[in-house]
Each structure stands twice: as C-alpha cells, then as structure tokens.
Design brief:
The protein contains 21 helices and ten strands. A hairpin with a 2-residue loop joins β4 and β5. The longest helix has 53 residues.
Length: 612
C-alpha cells in the first residue's frame, strides 16, 4: 500500500460530494451573549463552546489516551527489563520476551488510534473554526450601515483574518496541546503515586515552581498582546485607505508622503512586535532553564533512593521519564502560553463586533408580500447619535404610488439622510416614516427591501462577469428577460463589441469598464428586480455627456410606473419629475414641479442658475 492509498483509507470522504456539507456550521452569537455578567470574558466563551462540544472533547481525550499508551508503558517495560536483567534467575528470559511482546502490541495499535484521533479531532476543530467565521460574517451583515461607517474596513479585515486565525490556533492548542498535556501529567503522577509516595511528594513540591513562573509573566504578555493587536488593526485600516487612495495619491504626486506616513506606523508596529518577541524570548529561556534544572534534581533524588535500596535501580528510568514528561508538558504549556494569550485577546477583539447591539431587529415585525409604493414623511426630524444638531427638521411629504420625486440641494442639505430613511438605514429621531400607511418601524426591513432598488452615484460592481453583476442575488431569471433588461438599459451598445458579451470578466470593481458602462450595469441590476420603489442617488453626476445620454435613456425605462426618488446634482436631468423637493439645512424650503419652481424664482431657480 503506497502513501496516497493509506491516506485515502485513513481519511475516507464517507461518500460525501464536494458541494455537500455533512456538518452544520455552528452559530456562536448566542454563546457570546450568554451570562451577561461574564460575557466579556474570553475564558467564559471558551467554557461555553467546550460545554457545547463536551461529547466530542471526551471522545477526543479518550482516543488520545489510547494512542498515547505506548509513551506511558515504554518506561515501565524498560524498568522491568532492567530490573529482570539485574536480578536474573529462572524465567528471566521469558519475562523479558513477554514485556517485549506487550511493548510491540501497544506500539502497533498507535497506527490506527492516532489516525482515528487526528480525523475526529481535526473535524471538530475545523467545524469550530468555521463557526467563528460564520458568526462574524452573519453579524457583519446584520450590523447597521451607520456601524459600518464608523469603523474602518481595514480594521474589520484584521479582525476577520488575524483574530480568527489566532482563535483557531487557540482551539488547536487546547485540543492538541493543553488537554493532552494535562492528561499526560495526571497519568504520570498517577503511575508514580502507585509505585512511590516519596517520589510523588517530590513531584508535588517541585513542579509548581513552573506554574509560579508562568504567573509572573502572564500580565506583561497579556498587556503586550493587546498593544500589538491594536497596532496591527490600526495599520490594516491605514493600508486599506492607502489602496483606495492610490489613484488620487499618484495624480497629485504624493507617493513619498504616503510612504513616509505609513513608515511611521510600520515602525511603531515593529517596536511593539519586538517588545512582544523579547518578552516571549525571556519567558521561554527562563522556563527552559528551570525545567532542565529540575530534571537534573530529580535524577539526583531518585539515584540516591536507589543507592539506599529504597527503589529498584530500573525504576530510576520510570521516575526520570515521567518527571521529564511532566516537566516537558508543563514546559509545553508554558511555551504556548503567549499563543493562548493571543487567542484569548482575539476572542475579546471579535466579541467587540459580535456583542454590538447596533443591529436591525426584524423579529416579530410585519413581512410584506406586496407593496404599492406610497410613502409618507410625517414631521420627521433626525440627528446622528452623539450629536445635538438636527440634520433633518420637520420634513413633511406625501408621495403617491408611482410618483417621481426629485430631491435637490447643496451638499450637506440632508438629501442622503432622506434617502437613507426611505431605505430603512436610518430611523427618524422624531416623527414617523410610513410605507403604504404602515410605520417603517413596524416593517420587517428584509422583506420591505425586496421591493426596492438603488442605483448609487458610484456603481458598486464586484469581481466577475457582467451577467453575474446584473443577476446578483437572483435565481431563475430567464434568458429572454435578461436580454430584455440588457436592451432597456442600453448595455448591448457596448457588450456586442466585447469578446464574450455579457459573460466578459470586468475585473475588480468593474475596473475594465467606463463610468457610463458601469452605471448602465447598475441600472440593469435595478431594472431586472422590477422594484416598486426606485432610488437614483446622483446616478449621472460623474458621467460625461455621451455616457449621461445613454444612462438617461436607460433611466427612463427604469422609472416608468415606479415610485421613484431622484437625488440630482445636474438639475436638467429632473425636468420630468412630478415634484421637486428643494432641501436647505435639513428643511424642505420648496416643493413643486419644474416649471412652477422656475417661475417662482426662489431657491430652485437660484440652484439652476448656479448649475447652468
């Protein structure tokens, strides 16, 4: 049997296809939220996860004991052989052969028990790691838009990558180092206690010295880990910003300034890392010296006992081996303590997200099955958290189903805030927003948003093909319907010239397309959803005249028969709106159609004159 065949037999796929998942990925959010008084304790989180997996932990521990029998039996058999050979006498040869037979049987079974232990334990660890990732992804999706605006994406990426990896290392260390080490120490002490009370007492007196040493380093390692983790998150956030700003940086010749700015952060990270490394090095060196010295002390102690005839000579091997095993396992725990501390700190870091209560709660709310599209703002006020200034003041507006409303105004006048309240991203501080006569506070926002489409100013495309971007999140869309939408959005004007048509790969963020082409894809994505409420957030403001013309043609098809809100920078694009709302300092200062407002020569007229 070659190596590949052995591995396939030892780790069978159990008849599971590649796209099937035999283990349900757990969700640990409830565990993080249990025991309110202790929920911030990473150790408590580990206890709850261990409790959830207690049967798996017990089976894994039992398999470890079986596979590790040879390690504990070999010194006993070695001592037996030495003692038999030293004393001699009738039957000595037979007893040595019996010990040898037992030894080889125990060694042989390790082949199967070790493979079984690895397979079982690794599946449990992989499932637990997937659970942490799954929990974090779900939480990030459920957190509010305002939460995401307040925390840098680079910091979130650092938590997802570095912290989850550290937690996986922590779980692996616990299952494959901590628990096995504790079992080994207990077995070693138990066998020693059965043979000699004096040697056991020696163990009990000497071994705690290692524990005392660990406690001496614990606080400083924890403090250094926290500082290093925060500096790592900080630089991740800055690198993310740097990558986003590269076009601007290069356009203004600011490369050296950006390099210099990041070099300071990198230097700070280097210093924090060196402090952590130096502490870890001192920790490892002191623990090695201490354990090696104690091992020598054990050898002298048991040698003197044998010299006095209080133990057989061969038993020195047992006590020395088990003492080294105990100190070795304590040493292992000592050496991995920095990784354990890092993992615990990462659990604390991840819990900052998982325990956040800035989420949309849709539990028990009205699930919409149909939407007409009427919207009412009833004397709405809004101010952002931790501020006293209202950015929306006494906004009152009734929008009929199918009506097209344009919202205009200077930057900071409140246009985007109004749109975010329609989507449900923001909740009114005072007043009420109603959808089809029902307060948006009572609606299940997930079901409500199934009837909404948004075309933002900066079209958001992902790495993939044009087809995949249009059909994002949709299934069972016929090819005929897709072609119809592509034609309505005027996408075939440029896809017919591409080598693979709508199956052309567009690169990261649609980098291989022009601004107008990307915007038309965003319009097609909205159109194919056949929304009841449509939001066009300055959808043409960044386009040239030719691109704007194509996008405007596509938008006419999109607006037809839908309740539409248009946030416009170019006022010429909203001439056909049913009503125009002019915002200034959070208030609607004018409302009317294009001709009426122009004739009035008020705020809208002044904006039109400024914009041309």
């Amino acid at each position: 049997m070659n190596q590949d065949e052995f591995i396939r037999q030892a780790f069978p796929d159990d008849g599971v296809k590649a796209d099937e998942n035999p283990y349900k990925i757990p969700d640990y959010e409830k565990l993080f939220c249990e025991n309110e008084d202790e929920k911030k304790s990473p150790v408590n989180i580990l206890k709850l996860i261990a409790k959830k997996n207690k049967n798996n932990v017990l089976i894994s521990s039992l398999l470890f004991i079986i596979k590790n029998l040879a390690v504990w039996i070999i010194p006993i058999i070695t001592a037996n052989v030495i003692n038999i050979a030293t004393v001699g006498g009738e039957g000595s040869r037979r007893r040595i052969l019996i010990n040898a037979a037992v030894l080889f049987v125990i060694i042989g079974q390790n082949l199967f028990s070790h493979v079984l232990y690895s397979k079982f334990t690794d599946k449990m660890l992989r499932t637990t790691g997937a659970g942490f990732r799954n929990t974090l992804i779900k939480k990030l999706q459920h957190l509010s838009v305002s939460y995401h605006k307040e925390i840098e994406s680079g910091r979130l990426q650092a938590k997802f990558m570095r912290d989850i990896e550290a937690i996986e290392f922590l779980n692996t260390h616990i299952m494959k180092s901590v628990i096995p080490s504790v079992i080994s120490v207990l077995v070693s002490i138990g066998i020693t206690a059965a043979k000699s009370g004096k040697v056991t007492l020696f163990y009990i007196v000497v071994i705690p010295l290692n524990v005392i040493m660990v406690s001496g380093f614990r606080k400083v390692i924890k403090r250094n880990n926290i500082r290093f983790r925060k500096e790592n998150e900080n630089i991740s956030a800055k690198v993310s910003d740097m990558l986003e700003m590269i076009p601007v940086t290069k356009a203004h010749g600011l490369e050296n300034e950006e390099i210099e700015k990041l070099e300071k952060n990198i230097e700070q990270l280097r210093r924090e890392g060196l402090v952590l490394d130096r502490t870890t090095a001192y920790f490892g060196s002191v623990s090695w010296i201490l354990s090696t010295a104690l091992s020598g002390l054990c050898l002298v102690f048991t040698g003197l006992l044998a010299l006095d005839g209080k133990i057989p000579v061969g038993d020195i091997v047992i006590y020395q081996t088990f003492f080294n095993s105990i100190t070795g396992n304590v040493q292992l725990l000592v050496n991995i303590y920095p990784d354990l501390a890092k993992g615990l700190e990462s659990i604390r870091s991840v819990s900052e997200i998982i325990l956040s209560d800035d989420v949309e709660n849709n539990s028990g709310k009205i699930r919409l099955r149909y939407l007409h599209g009427s919207i009412d703002f009833n004397h709405v006020y809004y101010k952002y958290p931790k501020t006293d200034k209202f950015v929306i003041k006494d906004f009152d507006l009734h929008v009929n189903s199918g009506e097209c409303i344009a919202i205009v105004g200077a930057s900071g006048s409140g246009k985007s805030t109004i749109i975010n309240m329609i989507i449900g991203f923001l909740k009114a501080t005072k007043g009420d927003v109603k959808i089809d006569g029902k307060s948006i506070e009572l609606l299940n926002l997930l079901s409500y948003r199934q009837f909404i489409s948004v075309v933002p100013q900066n079209s958001m495309l992902f790495t993939g093909t044009i087809r995949e971007n249009i059909l994002y999140g949709l299934e069972n869309i016929s090819e005929a319907r897709l072609k119809e939408v592509i034609h309505l959005a005027n996408i075939d004007e440029f896809t017919d010239k591409l080598p693979h048509g709508i199956d052309t790969f567009i690169g990261e963020h649609g980098g291989k397309l022009s601004g107008g082409q990307k915007q038309r894809i965003a319009i097609a994505r909205a159109l194919i959803r056949d929304p009841k409420i449509l939001i066009l957030d300055e959808a043409t403001s960044a386009l040239d005249n030719i691109s704007e013309y194509h996008v405007q043609q596509a938008m006419k098809q999109l607006i037809n028969g839908r309740t539409t809100f248009i946030v416009a920078h170019r006022l010429s694009t909203i001439r056909d709106a049913d009503r125009i709302v002019v915002m200034e300092n959070g208030e609607a200062v004018e409302i009317g159609d294009y001709d009426t407002l122009m004739a009035k020569k008020g705020e809208f007229y002044q904006l039109k004159m400024l914009n041309g």
